[in-house]
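Q: Can I borrow your eye for a moment on a structure tokenisation matter? Would you mind producing a protein record, from residues through to fold? Write it directly below this note and I will take it from there.
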Amino acid sequence: MKQEARHAIVDIGSNSIRLVVFGGSRRDPRVLYDDKVIAGLGRGVVARGKLDRAGIGLALATLKRFAALIRLVRPDSLRVVATAAVRDATNGPQFLEQVRALGLPAELLSGEQEAQASAWGVIASHPGLRGLVADLGGGSLELARIADDQVHDCVSFPFGVMRVAAIRAEGRGRIRKAVKEALAPLGWIDQARGETLALVGGSWRALDAARVHRFGGVRGEPFPGRLTRDLKAAVRELGTHRLVAIPGVSAGRAAQLEHAAALLRALVAETRVAEVCVSNAGLREGLLFQGRR
């Protein structure tokens, strides 16, 4: 019997390094293997403009192990992508050369390519959804408008959860002002008014776990945009020590949730979407789905 096709994707992000091997169809893939290490590459980018030295060491050790696993799996296709942290770091090109020396064909995604891939992941898993896709990572926020199962507009902002913390430290209301200014030139944002904001990323998933803990419901279900105001207040009230006790919220995510909640509230207020949902599919699934064509 012929073995089903296997597709491997290595995602080099600001927080984590991840290898996922998919089987099944590209539209509805099945995860055969999923391995993640929190390397924290982006920690030094916000402060010093460079990838964190300790993070580089851990990332390269992890990627060397991933390369060995990939040689054993012998996938039918392989994508190795780096995103915002490597894109923004002055030592990003040198890091990519070290990754390629391990035998991994690393490519650097632009902010627009990252936004497109995440949007295709949402389209694959939520056919018919109309509105915006917001992919939140450690170093950047990607927005894309989707309608009729197509990606129409894309943009990337330096509003990763690490950077949001720095922006909010400047004073009350600063993140709302920053989001308002960033969205102002984008005429296509108005087309999503009254539609859905689909969230992609680990911080959003942890925030959704906090929503269910505080207000009830089911994780991943759509919820009214107006609830984001109460959710922001609830996360602030709970604090890190109580957030980390919620299933689905790690210690690292708990420390970031207040910033993620503030960013979400600002996005909902400025885009005027009617509802919000959290997607389990995003960049990696989108890269796989794009490869079908």
